[in-house]
Structure formats: structure tokens, C-alpha cells
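task queued by scheduler; priority normal; single chain, no ligands, no partner chains; default sampling; output format set to C-alpha cells
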Amino acid sequence: MRKESTERRRANRRPVRLPVEVGPDRGWTRDISPSGVYFETARAPAPGTPIRFTVFWKAPSPRPLRLECQGRIIRTERRAGMMGVAVAIIASRWLEGPE
């Protein structure tokens, strides 16, 4: 008997630890793909809620990059005093510079 997969991701995520900002809150990514991200921060809105956040990338060039994203929260979970947040990315854009 074959066990059915519960995996619903559209793309494979890659483990990466990058700074993330969600409004006034800061945190760290755990993994990311073109269609989604999982990060940890101090608090999170309820699943289904729209969200805007920024992921900061260390670029090889002298100017840092940031990825500004709009998404929808898929799930949240408490993780060692932080909130783990899984987000489906709906739209994103790359920008240069710190802010």
C-alpha cells in the first residue's frame, strides 16, 4: 500500500537563513522558493491573512538586494518562543539598496 504525500508546495524550497521584516517585526527565513517562504518572527496574523514582507539578500555586488513580497499566510505555529509562518508568495519584486 502506497502512502499518499501531504506535500502541497508548488516548488522545492531551499534552506536559507536571511533577515526578514514584517512591518515593525524582524525575523529569519528558514527556507524559501519562488512560490513560498517559511520564516520565524515574534508574532504572526492568522492563516488566510494577506501579508507584506521584505527578505534581505547578501549580494556579491557592493549594493545589497531586497525582495519585497506580497503573500497569503498558509499556516502558523509556535516554535521555541517565536512564531513560524508559512506564506504563499503572490507577487514580488527585487530592489537594490538597504531600503
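post-processing summary
- Residues 48 and 83 are 15 Å apart (CA to CA).
- The beta strands are 14-15, 19-22, 25-33, 36-41, 50-57, 65-79, 82-96.
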